[in-house]
Amino acid sequence: MDQEVFFQKFVTFATSVHEVTYELTKDIKPNDITPVQYSILEYIAVSQPVTLSQISDCKHISMPNTSRELKKLTEKNLCEKFDVAEDRRKQLIRLSEVGQAMMNEAFHRIGGRFLDRIKDASAEELEEIQRALDVLQSKVFYGDK
Amino acid sequence: MDQEVFFQKFVTFATSVHEVTYELTKDIKPNDITPVQYSILEYIAVSQPVTLSQISDCKHISMPNTSRELKKLTEKNLCEKFDVAEDRRKQLIRLSEVGQAMMNEAFHRIGGRFLDRIKDASAEELEEIQRALDVLQSKVFYGDK
DNA sequence: CCCATTAATTATCATTTGATAACTAAATGG
DNA sequence: CCATTTAGTTATCAAATGATAATTAATGGG
Hints:
Chains A, B: Keywords: DNA-binding. Chains A, B: GO terms for molecular function: DNA binding; DNA-binding transcription factor activity. Chains A, B: This is MarR family transcriptional regulator. Chains A, B: Residues 1-138 form the HTH marR-type domain. The structure is a homodimer of 145-residue chains. Chain A has 145 residues and is mostly helical. Chain A has a domain at 25-108: Arc Repressor Mutant, subunit A, CATH 1.10.10.10. Chain A contains six helices and two strands, in the order ααααββαα. The first copy, chain A, has a two-stranded antiparallel sheet with strand order 1-2. The A-B interface holds A 1, 3-4, 6-7, 9-22, 46, 60, 111, 114-115, 117-118, 121, 125-126, 128-133, 135-137, 139-143 and B 1, 3-4, 6-7, 9-22, 46, 60, 111, 114-115, 117-118, 121, 125-126, 128-133, 135-137, 139-143. The structure holds a DNA duplex (30 and 30 nucleotides).
């Protein structure tokens, strides 16, 4: 198949993924935190404990801005900072109990929407979907560094 | 397989897709337009001609804000508005020649990065990738309305 | 023909986000 | 030890984005 067509297919696919993740996650975020703050919390939830630098790198937010947003999140008691014994410049960040509960709730609702989305798939189809996820993850959407 | 694990796999996958599209498109946008403006241009490029309402719906930007951004893009000569004979409230929007050239260039560069990303895949693997894209597109990342 | 709806515009305001400079403190490596 | 690098903070500013209200004009259904 033509490279042009292949690329076209990829673009359509990526657009669909973005749209579906938008649908799955819309109206999930509590009103008292901003979109960027919510995305930081999602990242912490999945990768905790993390350092400020990791958040900055992974979310593509500058250190000063990451520091600022994290300070707000800490003031809202959604996450906590812990000193690292080996390197006292660093801080490890975790969700607080409240923050964890909030994100559990959020993921639970998103998970429900996701299951609803695939509810019509048979067991064989689910197998097929999983293999497809593995293929694309390893051959197209891999991270290189 | 467990639903929890399945969902977990989905989350990881969606995250990878977002990260890879970020990598493919970073530093592509010209400096004289904002991120939102660029994303609007991408949408117009792929779907033209489109109405203002379509842009508003698909990009999840309110009508007033869509109108404002589109006005700026028109002033920069990147797109053009045409009246619709059948319904004089509507306007169809297309890229201007300059805008089209800009987006062609952008897509060309992104396409190059994409091809580089899959350059090590064999012909059979490319077939496999394509089938995987089709499977996921139809069974997971479909749009419903 | 009137009323409700749709499409788009303009103006305005608040908030969020991004960018930069200047700083402290700790580690690391010759 | 001293210089450099790393980790994070604070302050400040500008720009981008989001939200709302009020308006115009055209359409479409009873």
